[in-house]
Amino acid sequence: MCLAIPSQITHIEDQIATIDVAGVQRQASLLLLEDARIGDFVIVHAGFAIQKLDADAAQETLMLLRKAAEQAERDDEFD
Amino acid sequence: MKDQLSQFGEAFREPQLARSLVAQLKISARAPMRIMEVCGTHTMAIFRHGIRALLPPTVTLLSGPGCPVCVTDQNDIDGFIALAQREEVIVATFGDLMRVPGTYTSLQREKAEGADVRVVYSPMDAVQLAQDHPDRTVVSLGVGFETTTPTIAATILTAQQLKLPNFCVYAAHKTVPQALAALMAHPKVRIDGFLLPGHVSVIIGMQAYRPFFEAHAIPCAAAGFEPLDILQGLLMLARQIKAGRPALENAYPRAVTEAGNPKARTIMDQVFVACDARWRGLGEIPGSGLAIRPEFSQFDAARRFKIAVVDMPPPKGCACGEILTGIKTPPECPLFRTRCTPMDPVGPCMVSSEGTCAAYYRYSS
Ligand code: SF4
Known about the structure:
- The complex is a heterodimer of chains A (about 80) and B (about 375).
- Chain A is built from one helix and five strands; from the N terminus they run βββββα.
- Helices cover about 30% and strands about 35% of the residues of chain A.
- Chain A has a single domain, classed as SH3 type barrels (Roll).
- With about 80 residues, chain A is of the alpha+beta class.
- In chain A, a hairpin with a 2-residue loop joins β2 and β3.
- Chain B is globular.
- Chain B is of the alpha/beta class.
- Chain B contains 17 helices and twelve strands.
- The chains are: A alpha+beta (about 80), B alpha/beta (about 375).
- The site of iron/sulfur cluster has 14 residues of chain B, from α16.
């Protein structure tokens, strides 16, 4: 039931967003989300946008994962 | 736009980083550990991405009670069917519930025999159905955890605004933190850490687990559904377990915050109030359900209809109760693959796309 595919808001009218889900246009209600804007990436569940995705947090997670991977590799060399 | 999109999804599938996470996991998981993925969507994602095969043999993954259809009590399933049998009713439901066997029949069988049961993509579609059929009463089946409950609450508020007299909800919603506590209290359940559900956490936020965490001091990590999300969640848990230092960690910060989604939570609280609820496999758990508040009683199917169902036991021989608590895995159920298949399911865990038995059936031979 939970679709984890991030969708981008392309249009908003009356609390209804048009979203682009991997190239397919769908509609999602914005009743459960504060300040959604065009261009935002959102998680949609059962026809409702339930969260905006945080680009900075995504970048930071990826950066930490890369750092940890490099560190692990370096540790390996000394093993 | 493609690049932007990839930073939320595809980037979290990078094979090289996945390999590194697995290598780090091997170092931390030297001793055996039993980790429960609470959420049915995690169960599916773990199988789909082949994550079980990557894990060191010391890590045992247990599937938990996070498949909403699966944990719905037999009485509620029979209640849904009883409503569908009424002449004046249109039942609106997510597709997952259609084939769940009730004691005598299923929604699907009732539909084949003439009952008006409609599968909806969004609960909002049920409100539209009520507008389109003023001479009938639409009953929307409210099954799901904190991810779904706000969407149902929004439909009730919308129906109220539209002054729709022929719309109501059969509320069988459940809450995750209370179920975790019930699992900890269960004498047969042995769990060393919880992989917390991603999208329930999106709504309720990390703060909602704090009372549970403080009471039980068990390793917890919330995770998303891409391979790197899941592996990172597992690594956090393995490190906590190894160090003997339980924590409440968030491996999904691009979607999960401390406070969750305040607007969704407010709407949920406006319409629903905590109540005791019966779960398949776990029995009655105090405060683990959500009842429609008295102010909205006109939208409460339980108050509008006399739903008389007799207390019936779950299907004979079905081990769903033990599957949902991680006590057994599907191959340990004697009916698995023999009498129980997705084509002819005995229990709900074989029906739902998030059901553990269905996942095992599909992905292991
Ligand atoms: S295999 Fe079928 S009968 Fe056995 S526990 Fe799963 S759903 Fe129930």
